[in-house]
Amino acid sequence: MAARLFSRLSPRLSLAARPLCTAPLKLTKLVATIGPASEAELPLRACVAAGMNVMRVNFSHATVEEFLLRRRNLRAAPGGEHVGVMLDTKGPEIRMGGLRVCRESGERKAKVLMEAGKDVLLTTDPKYDGDSDASTLYVGYEALASKLSPGDKVLLDDGLVILVVSKVTKDGVVCTITNTSEIGERKGVNLPGVVTDLPPMSEKDKIDIAFGVQHDIDMVAASFVRNAEGVREIRRFLEECHNKYAPEPDETPLPLIIAKVESTEALANLDEIIAEADGLMVARGDLGVEIPLEEVITWQKEMVSACVAVGKPVVVATQMLETMQKNPRPTRAEVADVTNAVLDDTDAVMLSGESANGLYPDHSVATQASICVAAEEWMRKVEYSAAAYHNATIDRLEQSGGGGVWLTNEDAALAASASMLAEDVGASAIVVVEPPLEQLLHARESQGALTRAVAKGTDARPMLPIVAISTSLKVCRQLSISRGVFPIRVTQLPESPAEAAELAFAAALLPEGSPVVVLCDGSLTAL
């Protein structure tokens, strides 16, 4: 029977290429940034084999040609067909302009010395873009003077240089430099605690997103999201692009919007952002510039818990294995950082420069995977759970409209019961058959929702694999970011719970004959 059922499976089934039932399962998903160090065929193939579930392409740096190369090599890699593709936007950033020393020397990496105690004028006059020096810096934000007041802080280059506003004049904003440091041109500018009026997307972002939709991206990591209206504007633009470029726009889901939280304004509007977005990224780089460093991890826990409570995926990112850009082994503190995120119940952890530009791209992926597996095994061993903290956030989020996924009441009840039944019968996995389009409450929005609800769990997140069966390759790729979910694409949905279980066995996801719980066609069955 298994052989007959296996013929239904997509011929490019990533999970069948790597039998998971013979090794510890990695429930936590890995998002790896692919860049110059890993974009070639062999290193990218090695990243997939090491456990990469989602390929991130950072459009702050990547060109369309580089994206196409990386996507082509990903899909050609064994197991790469089911790996999700994330387009990370540059976002509506505030940046310095060009330096005179760079223009005159022809050296783009030239720097100027900012000396503590001296004053610097921040100006929005474009004549200083390319003619800035240590006394006058161009900043590309026209509303700068109207947004700042004496005593406000301005951070340059991720806080490398800290300025304090002393006065605002007709010429610009006069600041005092608080620390001595060199700085290069076109570096980022942060205004901690200041509510800006930047648009949710820059013109570059719109061009990049439209390009991504044309080339079948699965999710957009939206940079510098500040509020729910920003997410809604991005979704409206995604819908326009989707309706224009998707081959079957009414039958395929939009790319997921993963809102990157990286400002104090976003933290203030966190609940409404969670309600509107499809998931969150804890973007600790810029966030750590905007808020005190000692608060980053506690905010990380808040964000992970809030997303788990409503069943939306969350990614913990930035400097997780930073030293592996140059070293073959991470520091003990980095191992603890990844472990801590897993214990928080995050859906995914992310690598940036480690896999994009480092000396050991695939090894950093494999290292992060092994840390995740070790943390998950310890959680099983001691029956560790962060559920008490997650449950404490549910009422607050529901009151603020931060509800979860699109489901009928009946399906929501079944999803909530699945993990409890699995625990009662000692199941090795939960198998979820994603309903066909015609049965969904909201066709585009609901695809994958049943599986995500099961992955959320009830009192605690399930510590066992969730096998998701779908006829949609797009749904499978989007589920690749959800904790514990192992998608299978089939040409025809199983007709019974027994057939669904056989598909999971045939795909080498489970030990043959092990007990499973199957959620299929509106019923929950233990086999």
TrEMBL record:
GO molecular function: ATP binding; kinase activity; magnesium ion binding; potassium ion binding; pyruvate kinase activity
Reported cofactor(s): K(+)
Boundaries of every Pyruvate kinase barrel domain copy: 26-365
One Pfam family recorded for the sequence: PK
Positions of the Pyruvate kinase C-terminal domain: 459-519
Record EC number: 2.7.1.40
Catalysis: reaction(s): pyruvate + ATP = phosphoenolpyruvate + ADP + H(+)
Similarity annotation: Belongs to the pyruvate kinase family.
PANTHER family for the chain: PYRUVATE KINASE
Protein name: Pyruvate kinase
